[in-house]
Design brief:
single chain, 353 residues, mainly beta, Jelly Rolls, 1 helix, 24 strands, globular
Length: 353
């Protein structure tokens, strides 16, 4: 399919996945990074001549199956500012090193999620250190931008860690014995007793009427499952079918690499084909406010955008307390989060660490 198509039933539109993925209010942005990084060079970077065929500093080439992004020696995104929205980073494989202008740092991955409220302004770095020199360092993640309503755009910055072991994972087996797994990063799965982890306090997702849900779905070959209707009136819902072969959505055949908007208020029957299928679902009631965006700042008016740039030039959103624009938190792949107040948290059951 090369264009949006209108279809009957609960399927409203189908379109090919773009880069970044197109989103619906209250979401602003979604991107899927899937990089086959090689063994590291002992300095957390790839053992490759980085100038050969790469626009170093802005390398999204996927040459040899991976990109450096804005990293010069270590892949990733060195220090950069945000204001007026939230980032939700879901790391499916590998490790990310976080550092920010509040002095907080973290290393997380393999199912962990970091939820960062930029609010009035924060500078952070997201680096992808190649920790292993004896084997490849694959990295796969989603980064999702969730808008903040006008009354929350200037709240204090805040970051929350959702460790993989604490994220509710539901497993459903159909009559033929094929399983569907649903990980609920945000939002309760209707009919489930599992309690989702609380979003940051100033998030749009923390408002009950917002009906925000962020779920990942994995269907075994041949699996069938019914996605239950959303609870909220006016909610919108989109499925991103990023891995697999073919999926029937309410009887409509959809190829992998598709984004599917469905009626949020309707149950949606999913019937998988011959290969395991994986989807990301983003759902929420629109904030419905004007969006003024330029690069890393998302406000409601052009004047607020100009003020964001002026504030950043004047204050640096608190400055940068790290000695490097692209900090890496040493050897070893143990997961941790060190908050600005000095509090350190780790997963309760760090399997394999």
């Amino acid at each position: 399919m090369n264009s949006k198509t209108s279809t009957p039933s609960s399927v409203l539109a189908v379109e090919p996945l773009s880069f970044p993925w197109e989103t619906l209010d209250p979401f602003l942005f979604c991107v899927h990074h899937d990089d086959a990084y090689p063994p590291g060079n002992g300095r957390y970077g790839p053992p490759a001549p980085l100038l050969a065929g790469r626009n170093l500093g802005s390398d999204f080439s996927r040459q040899d199956g991976w990109s450096m992004y804005h990293g010069q020696q270590v892949p990733g995104f060195p220090a950069h500012p945000h204001r007026g929205f939230e980032t939700v980073t879901i790391v499916r494989r590998g490790r990310i090193d976080h550092a920010d202008s509040l002095g907080a740092g973290a290393r997380f991955g393999d199912g962990d999620v970091q939820w960062l409220t930029a609010g009035q302004g924060i500078v952070h770095a997201e680096m992808f250190p190649l920790l292993h020199t004896d084997r490849p360092n694959p990295l796969e993640l989603f980064q999702i931008w969730l808008n903040l309503p006008a009354e929350a755009k200037m709240v204090a910055p805040h970051f929350t860690m959702f460790w993989a072991e604490d994220i509710p994972l539901q497993r459903f087996v159909d009559e033929a014995g094929h399983a569907t797994e649903v990980a609920c990063i945000a939002g309760r799965l209707p009919g489930s007793a599992a309690e989702p982890l609380p979003p940051p306090p100033d998030s749009w997702a923390s408002q009950a009427q917002a009906d925000v849900a962020i779920w990942t779905l994995r269907l075994e070959p041949g699996a069938q499952w019914v996605l239950p209707p959303a609870a909220g009136e006016g909610t919108r819902r989109k499925l991103y079918f990023f891995a697999g072969a073919e999926l029937a959505v309410d009887g409509h055949a959809v190829p992998a690499g598709s984004a599917i908007e469905v009626r949020a208020g309707s149950a949606v029957a999913l019937a998988n084909g011959d290969a395991a299928a994986e989807l990301l679902m983003l759902q929420g009631r629109p904030i419905g406010q004007p969006v003024a965006q330029y690069g890393p700042f998302v406000m409601n008016t052009e004047q607020e955008l100009r003020q964001a740039f002026e504030d950043y030039r004047r204050t640096g959103f608190g400055g940068w307390p790290w000695s490097d624009e692209a900090p890496v938190h040493g050897d070893g792949d143990g997961r941790f989060a060190r908050h600005a107040d000095g509090r350190v948290e780790r997963p309760a059951t760090p399997a394999g660490e």
